[in-house]
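Q: Structure tokens for this one, please.
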Amino acid sequence: MTTSRSTLLAGLVALLFAPVRTVTAQPQVRELPVVQAALDALRADNTWTLTQQAEICEIPAPPFGEAARGEAVRQRFLALGLRQVRIDAEGNVIGERPGSGAGPRVALTAHLDTVFPDSTDVRVTRQGTRLIGPGIGDDCRGLAVILAVARALDRARVSTPGTIVFVATVGEEGPGNLRGVRHLFDQRSAGQLNGFISVDGTGLGLTSRAIGSHRYRVTFQGPGGHSFGEFGMPNPIHALGRAIAELSEIVVPLSPRTTFSVGMVQGGTSVNSIAMSSAMDIDFRSERQEILDQLDSRLRRIVRDAVAAEKARWPASQVGLEAVITDIGRRPASSQSDDAPIVQAALGAARRLGFTPSISASSTDANYPMSLGVPAVTIDGGGEGRGAHSLSESYEDGLEGWKGPQWALLLSLELVGLKR
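A: Here is the predicted structure, written as tokens:
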């Protein structure tokens, strides 16, 4: 890229995101009576929010099977008076609360999908004030929060210059590879977005940096044969073992935190057979994209070396051995300064509600917009969750669970502005 093109691009980026930077600095938003009325409504109507959370969670939403839950959310968007309610080509549910002026468009999102297969019993049970059910916190809580925000804004008749775009996304969990949020931005199915807020999980934490991940399936293949009669040929499972041994010796930095894991292995047909194939699934994670790219190169070298070493072990054999590396998921790593306007807006909104959130890095829907340079954060939905991604997952609202929806509402208003 030439210097002139770089300068032009920088100017366009600055122009595109100028509205978000302008509207994030509104320290007195909460003090306005109409906003206080909306915040009070969220606290007073907390039972309604919890009811939505439980009802939505009893609709299955396995990976690539979110349609039924998405339709339920679409009906709720319509009932809450959102405009241009629709389901896009990828399955995201979108509804808008239009601004009264030419303000920014900011997405307030939560994800529809869970990690559980379609056969999972998703009934929600209650033990005192605790809700128990797969996905009750991740992310039925987030879905309930964005519904509660839409309801409170409508009832308090809050008017904003900018537009809040409510989105229930598909494909946030591992197998989905962020397919929903990728579609939002790549196809602009929610329009041109100037900011992005994801509500994901429980507690009162703030995610301002994106942990990226590269996931692979490595398959070793050969003709196979009888373990005694065909002994002396390269063995795909032995090659797999060589590769795993080398992977286990990788040294990764402590900062930025970087991890690796072989999460699944498979292969073979019987104890007395030389396997025709073997495979492993690998997960690399880091806060730095360049480190993920380096690990990618290291993996490919390890796999090549494992094939070569296994073939060299049996020099008299004419049998072939090959390896195939398949990408099964890539989430971009990204970061933004804690001084970024959207991060400061989230911190300021939290302080005005009486708490100070911890700031962390994680892997959420916000990864993708953040990697594109769009201001983005993920906030927790309040309450206390336990056992995420387990069948015994639980949610306890506690004494101040309603602060999660209040935080989402206040942050949204600070980004889109408020009509005075």
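A few notes: The longest strand covers residues 212-221. Residues 14 and 219 are 45 Å apart (CA to CA).
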